[in-house]
From TrEMBL:
A Pfam family that the UniProt record links to this protein: 7TM_GPCR_Srj
Residue spans crossing the bilayer: 6-30, 42-70, 90-115, 127-148, 199-223, 244-268, 280-303
Keywords, comma-separated and alphabetical: Membrane, Transmembrane, Transmembrane helix
Protein name, UniProt field: G-protein coupled receptors family 1 profile domain-containing protein
Keyword Signal: no
Domain of life: Eukaryota
Length: 337
């Protein structure tokens, strides 16, 4: 299904950028000799892999949003999984779960920075492999939790499909009965459909707001500790920790702005039968796909050592390409001897 050019191109472009930027960032961090990030490199590698998995899902399961009166829906807009099947319904629920998975990965990063400042000995002793393994399991919990509630409680059953059928025909010319779609209907539906919708969104909202609260809590504790004049860290270490925390705060703000905020607006807009226009629904589907490419750039920007290394590497590749071109041209000039 063709929605518009932006909906078709932007998720694919950002996914390609993600596959380029994330490995490049890991390469720079892993080979840096000045910062000595230690085990934190493994968390950055874990985050990069998660970002690329999210981008892969964006390419395989592109999503678009449609709100109608008291119902919210998100559907697969094109690709191999557009047509309805039970497997495809699980797949779109799984794709939605990566929104929460991003917060689980961020929690691991905030907790790591917290232990660096408050109990570094514990971190040194237990992070590898137990801490990293726990972080992966925690992310897996978020993904499974969201997948279950999206599939069982927000799945597009027949009555909910009928409710938005006319609107889907009007805007996209498709029969929603044959589409892979998640639908939440708050009013004007069957008691079962309304109960499952409200319960599902409530459970997803609770986990989402807890995730945000944890980020605010650990972010405040970390920033307060760094701002204390009595800190026993050296100025160099304190400066590096401040840079990393700034990067982490921006990394947390990116999925909040481009993933969580559009979700909240789309979820709760139908409760009041509000209509903010189709632009918001188009933007929600597009914005979710951008954070895996934007996320690693925050780390590079806020840590000058990495930023300089990133710039030097780019310049090296440009110089090498220019040098090879010049050499090739010289070698093709015929000899006059």
């Amino acid at each position: 299904m063709y929605i518009n050019l932006a909906q078709f191109l932007i998720p694919k472009i950002t996914s390609i950028c993600s596959f380029l930027i994330n490995p490049f960032t890991v390469f720079i961090v892993w080979n840096d000799k000045k910062l000595q990030l230690g085990n934190y490199r493994y968390l950055l590698l874990y985050f990069a892999i998660f970002n690329m998995c999210t981008s892969l899902m964006d390419m395989l399961v592109p999503m678009c949003v449609l709100n109608y009166r008291y119902a919210f829906s998100v559907f697969i807009s094109d690709g191999f999984f557009e047509q309805f099947s039970e497997f495809n319904q699980i797949l779109i629920a799984f794709r939605c779960s990566f929104i929460s998975g991003a917060y689980a990965v961020l929690h691991a990063h905030f907790l790591y920075r917290f232990f660096v400042l408050f109990n570094n000995q514990f971190l040194t002793t237990y992070f590898m492999p137990y801490g990293l393994f726990t972080a992966i399991l925690y992310c897996f919990f978020h993904i499974v939790y969201w997948t279950i509630y999206c599939y069982y409680y927000c799945g597009g059953d027949y009555s909910r499909r009928l409710y938005i059928r006319e609107s889907m025909f009007e805007h996209h010319g498709k029969d929603v009965i044959n589409m892979t779609i998640i639908i939440v209907q708050y009013f004007e539906g069957t008691p079962e459909a309304m109960y499952k919708s409200r319960f599902g969104i409530t459970c997803l909202s609770v986990l989402s707001f807890i995730s945000l609260a944890l980020i605010f809590y650990f972010g405040y504790k970390i920033w307060y500790r760094l701002s204390k004049q009595s800190s026993d860290m050296s100025e160099k270490t304190k400066k590096l920790q401040t840079q990393l925390v700034k990067a982490l705060i921006v990394q947390a703000a990116i999925p909040t702005c481009v993933s969580f905020a559009p979700c909240i607006l789309s979820w709760y807009q139908p409760i009041f039968a509000l209509n903010f226009g189709r632009w918001l629904q188009f933007a929600a589907g597009i914005a979710v796909s951008t954070f895996p490419a934007l996320d690693p750039l925050a780390l590079i920007y806020f840590v000058p050592t990495l930023r300089n290394r990133f710039t030097d590497t780019i310049m090296f590749f440009k110089f090498s390409k220019k040098y090879q071109t010049s050499t090739s041209r010289i070698s093709t000039v015929p000899s006059t001897a």
